[in-house]
C-alpha cells in the first residue's frame, strides 16, 4: 500500500485512541480492502464516512469510493485526510443525509459498505439494492455490537432470496451479502 495512505491510517488510529469517531477496527479495515481487491471493485459506496478511516482502506484497493456523511466537522476532517493520503481524486464525499442521497442515487456499484445509522440499515438496503451489480457485495458493520437496532435489517436480508448472506463474526460483526 502507498506509504502516504499507511501514514494517514496510522495517524487517525493513534490520534483517536478512545475512538470518538467510531472508526472500524483495523482488522475490519484490512478485510474491506482485501474484499475490494478480490473483486477488483471499481466503484464503492460507503454509507457513514466519519473522518474517513474505512474509506481510506477501501480506496487503497484502487477503487473510486463515494462516501456519505451528514456531520460537517467529520466530513471536513475526512476531506483533509483524503488530501494527505493523496486520495482526494479517488474518494468523493457526499455531504448530507444518507436516505436523501440514496433516494436520488443512479450509479451502479460493485461494493457497498454500510456504517451509518443502524436503525436505517433496512432502508439503505432497499434503496441501494437495485444499484448493486450482479455478483456485487454489500457489507454492513455492527450487526453484533448493535444487534437490536440492526434486527429489522437482518430479518429483511435473511429472507431475501435474491442474495446470499453470511455473518462474519469478527470485531463488531460484519454482515456479508452477495447479490446473486
Ligand atoms: C460509525 S461512523 C462511520 C465510521 C467510518 N465508517 C469508519 O470506519 O471510519 C458513522 C457515521 O455515519 C454518520 N451518519 C449517521 N447517520 C447518518 C445519515 N442518516 N446520513 C449521513 N451520515 C450519517 C455519522 O455522522 C457518523 O459519522
What are the salient characteristics of this protein?
180 residues, alpha/beta, Rossmann fold, 7 helices, 7 strands
CATH superfamily: Vaccinia Virus protein VP39
**Low-pLDDT windows of residues:** none
Structural class designation: alpha/beta
- Name of the CATH architecture: 3-Layer(aba) Sandwich
The SSE string, one letter per element, is HHEHEHEHEHEHEE
The span between the termini is: 31 Å
State the strand order across the main sheet: 3-2-1-4-5-7-6
Approximately how much helix is present in the residues?
A: 25-40%
Q: Roughly what fraction of the amino acids lie in strands?
A: 15-25%
**What is the number of domains?**
1
The third-level CATH topology is Rossmann fold
The gross shape turns out to be: globular
